[in-house]
Amino acid sequence: DRYHADGLRVDAVASMLYLDYSREPGEWVPNVRGGNENLEAVSLLQTLNRETYLAHPDVHTIAEESTAWPMVSRPTDTGGLGFGMKWDMGWMHDTLGYLQRDAVHRKHHQGDLTFRAHYAFGENFVLPLSHDEVVHGKGSLLAKMPGDDWQKFANLRLLLSYMYAQPGKKLLFMGGEFGAHAEWNHDEALDWDLIGEPLHRGLQLLVADLNRLHKTEPALHEADFDAAGFEWIDAGDSAASVLSFARHGGGESVLVVFNFTPVPREGYLVGAPHPGRWQEILNSDAHPYGGSGVGNLGAVDTIAAPTHGFDQALELTLPPLAAVALKHDGAPPAADPE
After folding, report:
1. Which of 128, 229, 287, 311 has an alpha carbon 20 to 30 Å from 195's alpha carbon atom?
2. What's the gap between Cα 88 and its chain centre?
3. What is the pLDDT of residue 336?
4. Are 108 and 117 in contact (CB under 8 A)?
């Protein structure tokens, strides 16, 4: 009410919840029930969240909590801790670990990308690429990516596109949006002059467009915490390191396909939930972003080819190390010429 904060992010919640957190046997005392839960801390966090939302229903409280403690982002009156959202630390570790691998090895680790679907809607998750990932010798996001300079930027564009397409809210620490070379140093300014260089400027343009799409496309935000808003198309093409899924919301659908290798793929069939024309609304390999410009000429019509459990498919050109997002335009399929 005084400083107009948008909310509170509470650090290291696990260290508060567990009496034995980072302690050896004999270094902690069980609670009155004989367990390792810190009951007083639970009560404090519930009170903090309840009173915060009562006084300011338009803010967020967000927990950095990395264990399987249940109902972190569920209401206190049903036994939850009452946070609005929880950081998805598993997504961060698995996804960064996957992207840091050379593309030739990724086919053996597709499960790092698909495992999240098993728990993605158990909490209201935030996908964090935070300050913690770019300090203490970990290197910047760009520095983590494998390959030459072009592939590093393509991989980073792919990573950010993947984050924005996933269910869950987005967290990107400053510098990641233009590809800072150095890890974050709180004593120094960011390398803002890098934005004048083409690949850095292209990455910043991509993030601007990802933000615009996230805001304007209901399918990409409306059902972030609802399993009904997410549908696998194909999670199993590990041989090609290709992944595809659809997001649904507001009566609309967006289909996203990811090629995690530097090999362009032509004539790649992807099952489509709806027949008709699909507009290519984002291609992270587009020239303005610093990509090679491989794509689908703006739109693709479905063909009658049963694929991935659907009656129709899109025959796509998948650009290298890139994401392609397509939106169903609602029009019926064009009639076949006689």
Report:
1. 128
2. 9
3. 52
4. no
- Dist. CA 154–CA 258, nearest whole Å: 12
Closest by Cα among 336, 218, 330 to 274: 330
Q: What is the pLDDT of residues 21-41, one digit of tens each?
A: 999 999 999 999 999 999 999
Query: For residue 257, which phi and psi values (nearest 5 degrees)?
Result: -125, 135
For residue 330, CA distances in Å to 158, 216, 220, 240, 274 come to: 27, 17, 17, 30, 9
Cα-based distances in Å from 222 to 76, 92, 195, 216: 24, 22, 32, 10
Query: Which one of the listed residues 6, 64, 112, 222 is annotated catalytic?
Result: 64
Question: What's the number of CA atoms in the CB half-sphere (13 Å) around residue 332?
Answer: 3
162-199 per-position pLDDT tens digit = 999 999 999 999 999 999 999 999 999 999 999 999 99
Among 6, 11, 94, 102, which one carries the catalytic annotation? 11
φ, ψ dihedrals at 47, nearest 5°: -65, -45
Q: Reduced to 3 DSSP states, what percent helix, strand and coil does the chain have, rounded to the nearest 5? A: 30, 25, 45
Check if 11 is active-site: yes
- Kindly report the number of other CB atoms within 10 A of residue 139's CB atom: 16
Q: Is 40 one of the annotated active-site residues of the chain?
A: no
